[in-house]
Amino acid sequence: MMMSPKQLLTTILIVFSTLSFIKLMLLTHSASSSPARPGRSAWDAGGSGNGTAAAATDGLNAKEFALLRSVVAARAPCGLLVFGLSPQLLALAAVNDGQGAATAFVTDSAEDAASARRVLAGRGPGGSAAVHRTTYPDPAGEAWALLRRARASPVCGRPTGTVRKSGCRLALTSLPREVLDARWDVVVVDGPSGAGPGEPGRMGAIYTAAALARAAGGGAVDVAVHNMNRTVERWYAREYLCEDNLVAAKGRLWHFRVAAGGPPDAFCSTAPVQIF
User: Per the confidence metrics, is the pTM higher than 0.90?
Assistant: First the structure.
């Protein structure tokens, strides 16, 4: 007996629905019966890590890291300060090796700090570095309000003494003296996260990097800032590191060279960037 087109269509729909239900049941059973696997941290997988940024960023790509590595290698052995901490960034400690080299990392993540110290302890004396914990008080969503207040505050102008004694809200004065009183030849900003309005922002890290560079005296200081595709990083880098000092860029990584000179009471010789 031949089925009518309507009966045939109904039969086909029932068959497909049954097959879909069976497939769903098999997938559910497979997921529930598979043994749970412990999560792998970024340090286990060699990923981006980077404190609060671990779940939000993908780290530097190959070309960006090549530029950053070349900046450090050109100055090594030198004073290298890195805001941010990940397996990728920790590799810079081995690049900055040699007599007189000093490398320090600043992170807001206890997990990243502990993981990095374990890695460094296993390396022995070569490629050693200091790891410092800190907190970043301001979320990225407060960037414009902070910048507006900083522009109106004389204490946020170009520092005339040690950054540790700065009265500017943006200065990370809670960092240890061995960070704030040292002379750094290369400063990298790739932390904290800054990935969303509620995440810790990089406003203080960029301002402090610029202040340390200006207070250093002597030769030029190389400052590299990652994630320059983001608004906050662009605002603050242009405000305090100055477009005149931009010497190279690769993808989201911009390399500034901050030399002595310039106006005594401002970071940049050009007028502040207008933000509407």
Answer: no
